[in-house]
């Protein structure tokens, strides 16, 4: 599903963000990528989103070699990925419903389907009642759930979460993680970048630890179940 | 499924509706800048319309004046009384491209016109010539041109035709009218180009600000997998709408002003009516309305399209 083969990324500033990273993630896996700031985990996400290109090495996602992908093929590729960020990145001038519908409009979904899919997504993340609220009126946890609904509404087969609990309190963090687990159980491959050790320990999933651009450990916690679809 | 091809991307009708709505929203969210662009755009199109009216009217007046400039053709004496020979020459002249119309003035008519002018106060003096027309050989054609600038070419031709004795022309009038026409043309082109540049710059500025304001939104769209066309469309719609509104307002204003002005001038200054022939308001707007609107839309489209291309290279 996701294959990184000896990937190196050096920025123009000379910073070596990734150094020979090789990583394989199978379909239906739930993987944490942990590490301090500067360990290269955010760079990894950017490479997977094809916001950046590796300096060397190959990245394959869904069987597609990202190195060879043409510029105009990027939008279509990104539609197969769902992404959530630490800062939620919701459109502040649109309500919850519109924020999620927006993701469907972008991929040119007929209005009829949008009207069906958005409420379904909202009830999945437990925000069915708040569809008229604006991001400002929601708590951090609620905003992150809207972001999750937006990431999932186009039915991606991979969900990338970049510090999804970074701005949340422990209770909300736990709920978001529960949601991610539910999503994983439905067959979506989930990759979570985080430095929240507590959550990682609770979840009992595969954990890839990075330090200074290198993978230093890759282990499956006891009780780890892989939900292959 | 209803779909419309847009470049290489196919868009559904509801997507077009979405882009239209977003374009309108952009204008609304960016009220002050949109208003400023619409106002300046209006000023530009108003000036354009004003010049257009002036130029069209001048040309119309010049055309009217041209109609009264004629080349007069007299015949050799041996055929001046020969109706058939004169008609044959008339047919030849009429076949020429430059000729708008032709009027045959017989010797009798010439004499009548002459009498009207010179013997108006003493018609009995003219009676003496009654049996012997002194202008018996003065039958002639009055040749009216389509365009005064073609006069010299036609005169050259006429002088070469056998049976023609003399060609009277008014070269000076023709030259002045032709040069005047050209001068007006050049001035108006220069002014219009200047105004176009100003308008494009303004629209471009508005769109640049719109892009800066929505940088985050654009970034999110890109991450979700929006195509470039999808990201750009609302901005193009915004530009086109500004252009359209910025053109409609001054055109409506001009229509009203022009109609009132023509009515006022014709009503107040009767003496001028023979001299100043205004183009009727509906004739004027049959051309000005589509040209003005197309110009507004065109400026809006190009102004926004190229700005986005510059700023949204992703």
Short account of what is shown:
The complex is a heterodimer of chains A (229) and B (314). In chain A, the strands form two sheets. Chain A has a six-stranded mixed β-sheet with strand order 6-7-8-3-9-10, with helices on both faces. A four-stranded antiparallel β-sheet of chain A has the order 2-1-4-5, covered by helices on one side.
Account of the protein in words:
The complex is a heterodimer of chains A (229) and B (314). With 229 residues, chain A is α/β, with parallel strands linked by helices. Chain A has 7 helices and 10 strands. Chain A has helices at 41-48, 74-78, 96-106, 111-124, 140-152, 170-185, 197-203, and strands spanning 2-10, 16-25, 30-34, 56-61, 64-65, 81-85, 158-162, 189-194, 206-211, 214-220. In chain A, strands 6-7-8-3-9-10 form a 6-stranded mixed β-sheet, with helices on both faces. In chain A, strands 2-1-4-5 form a 4-stranded antiparallel β-sheet, with helices on one face. In chain A, helix 4 crosses helix 5. The longest helix of chain A has 16 residues, at 170-185. Chain A starts with a strand and ends in a 9-residue tail after the last strand. The mean pLDDT of chain A is 89. Chain B is built from 10 helices and 6 strands; from the N terminus they run E-E-H-H-E-H-E-H-H-E-H-E-H-H-H-H. In chain B, the strands form 2 sheets. A 4-stranded antiparallel β-sheet of chain B has the order 4-5-3-6. Chain A binds chain B through residues 49, 51, 72, 74-79, 81, 83, 89, 91, 93, 102-103, 105-108, 110-111, 150, 154, and chain B through 1, 11-12, 14-15, 18, 29, 216-217, 219-228, 230.
């Amino acid at each position: 599903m996701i294959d990184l083969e000896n990937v190196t990324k050096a920025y123009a500033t000379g910073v070596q963000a990734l150094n020979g990273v090789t990583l394989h993630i199978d379909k239906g896996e739930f993987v944490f990528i942990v590490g301090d700031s500067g360990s290269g985990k955010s760079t990894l996400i950017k490479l997977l989103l094809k916001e950046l290109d590796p300096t060397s090495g190959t990245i394959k996602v869904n069987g597609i070699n990202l190195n060879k992908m043409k510029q105009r093929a990027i939008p279509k590729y990104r539609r197969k990925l769902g992404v959530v960020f630490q800062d939620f990145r919701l459109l502040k001038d649109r309500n919850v419903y519109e924020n999620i519908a927006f993701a469907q409009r972008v991929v040119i979904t007929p209005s009829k389907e949008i009207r069906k899919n958005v409420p379904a997504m909202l009830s999945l993340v437990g925000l069915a009642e708040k569809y008229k609220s604006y991001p400002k009126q929601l708590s951090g946890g609620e905003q992150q759930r809207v972001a999750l609904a937006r990431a999932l509404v186009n039915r991606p087969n991979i969900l990338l979460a970049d510090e999804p609990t970074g701005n949340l309190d422990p209770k909300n963090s736990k709920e978001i993680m529960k949601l991610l687990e539910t999503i994983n159980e439905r067959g979506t491959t989930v990759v979570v970048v985080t430095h929240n050790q507590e959550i990682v320990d609770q979840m009992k999933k595969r954990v890839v630890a990075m330090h200074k651009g290198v993978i230093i450990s890759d282990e499956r916690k006891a009780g780890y179940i892989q939900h292959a679809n | 499924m209803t779909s419309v091809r847009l470049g290489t991307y196919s868009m559904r009708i509801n997507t077009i509706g979405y882009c239209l709505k977003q374009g309108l929203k952009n204008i609304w969210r960016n009220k002050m800048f949109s208003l400023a662009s619409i106002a300046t755009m209006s000023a530009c199109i108003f000036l354009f319309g004003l010049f257009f009216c002036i130029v069209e009217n001048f040309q119309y007046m010049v055309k009217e004046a041209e109609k009264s400039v004629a080349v007069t053709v007299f015949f050799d004496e041996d055929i001046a009384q020969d109706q058939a020979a004169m008609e044959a020459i008339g047919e030849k002249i009429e076949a020429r491209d430059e000729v708008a119309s032709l009027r045959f003035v017989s010797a009798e008519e010439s004499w009548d016109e002459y009498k009207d002018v010179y013997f108006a106060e003493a018609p009995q003096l003219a009676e003496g010539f009654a049996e012997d027309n002194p202008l018996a050989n003065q039958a002639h054609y009055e040749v009216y041109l389509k365009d005064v600038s073609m006069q010299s070419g036609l005169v050259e031709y006429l002088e070469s035709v056998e049976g023609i004795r003399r060609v009277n022309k008014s070269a000076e009038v023709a030259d002045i009218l032709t040069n005047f026409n050209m001068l007006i043309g050049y001035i108006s082109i220069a002014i219009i180009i200047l105004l176009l540049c100003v308008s494009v710059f303004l629209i471009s500025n508005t769109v640049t600000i719109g892009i800066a304001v929505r940088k985050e939104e654009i970034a999110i769209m890109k991450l979700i997998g929006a195509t470039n066309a999808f990201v750009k469309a609302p901005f193009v719609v915004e530009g086109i709408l500004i252009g359209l509104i910025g053109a409609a307002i001054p055109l409506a204003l001009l229509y009203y002003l022009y109609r009132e002005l023509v009515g006022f001038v014709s009503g107040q200054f009767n003496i001028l009516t023979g001299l100043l022939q205004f183009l009727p308001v509906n004739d004027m707007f049959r051309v000005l309305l589509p040209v003005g609107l197309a110009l507004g839309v065109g400026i809006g489209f190009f102004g926004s399209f190229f700005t986005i291309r510059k700023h949204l290279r992703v």
